[in-house]
Amino acid sequence: MVQTKSASLFVGRWQPFHEGHQALVETVLSKGKPVVIAIRDTELSQKNPYTVNERWGMIQKALHQYGELVKIIVIPDIDEVCYGRDVGYGIRKIELSDNLHAVSGTNKRKEKPPVHPILWLTGQSGAGKTTLARTLKQNMPELIILDGNEMRESISLGADFSKIDRSEHNLRIARLALVLGKQAPVVVSVIAPFAAVRAQIDALIHPLWIYLTRNESPATSETYPYEPPEHPHLALDGDSATPEENACAVLSLLEQSHASAVRSEAPRIFPESIPLVRAKRE
């Protein structure tokens, strides 16, 4: 009977898996002892921007030379580890150098931001959100547009306009924006009528909120619910300005946010320069 060698278990978010984590695990691997690295299956958010597959790949790349000594598993997200008496294993703290202890996932995400800017165009139906999104894309060809109506025909197929379905629809789009934001800037053209849901979206992806108004929009009612944001990053009037002028205002906001991100080291990716190309009026 082949006896399996006992292993050491490491549990973490690994957001991202960095040199501090690697040094920690290698204190065991360097002695020829197997390790099991457990990836907590955290919900995607600004604090947890990397998927399980991305983190799995990071760990494999960093520790590939150890071959079968490394086993990677995925576990549900946890907030505590409980144990009783005589459990048959030990729990020990591994001391590293001060430099390695100082390495943190938060700082790594700041040094190499995983997410491009995400703009969220909110406002009543008919406020001009889709038009503004398309105008912005003429200025930023790499921009990804997530339109609420189009999303209802794909990731929210079958959802109705009840408060519950609207909320789930909005959060589903927010998670998709976070994933796509790793590739390019994203603009979301979705009403997001409820303040409580917008607060949840803030916690997930921290978008720049652009609030659009227009006289042609329907009045707020049970059929068209809408709770105006109290403190949007930018408020635009579709009646007093053209889509091109509003697009320039949004691009100026991006420039200001870029400068603020540089000062605060906020975890965002911004292009070195944002082109201000006027779209021709039809």
Brief digest:
This protein is 36% helix and 15% strand.
| Count of domain modules | 2
Radius of gyration: 23 Å
Which H/E pattern describes the elements?
A: EHEHEHHEHEHHEHEEH
Largest sheet: 5 strands, parallel
Mean pLDDT across all amino acids: 85
- Find the structural class using helix and strand composition: alpha/beta
Helix content: 25-40%
* CATH superfamily caption of the largest domain: P-loop containing nucleotide triphosphate hydrolases
Parts with pLDDT < 50 across at least 5 consecutive residues: 262-282
- The third-level CATH topology of the largest domain is Rossmann fold
- State the CATH architecture of the largest domain: 3-Layer(aba) Sandwich
The total of beta strands comes to 8
Within the largest sheet, what's the order of strands? 5-6-4-7-8
What are the SSEs and their pairings?
Layout: E1 8-12, H1 19-29, E2 35-41, H2 52-63, E3 70-76, H3 98-101, H4 105-111, E4 118-122, H5 129-139, E5 144-147, H6 148-152, H7 163-180, E6 186-189, H8 195-205, E7 208-213, E8 234-237, H9 243-264
Helix pairs in contact: 5-9, 7-8
Description:
With 282 residues, the protein is of the alpha/beta class. The chain has two domains: 104 residues, HUPs (Rossmann fold, 3-Layer(aba) Sandwich); 147 residues, Rossmann fold (3-Layer(aba) Sandwich), CATH 3.40.50. Helices cover 36% and strands 15% of the residues. The protein contains nine helices and eight strands. The strands form two sheets. The chain has a five-stranded parallel sheet with strand order 5-6-4-7-8, sandwiched between helices. A three-stranded parallel sheet has the order 1-2-3. Helix 5 packs across helix 9 and helix 7 runs parallel beside helix 8. The longest helix has 22 residues. The radius of gyration is 23 Å and the shape is elongated. The N and C termini lie far apart (79 Å). The C terminus is likely disordered.
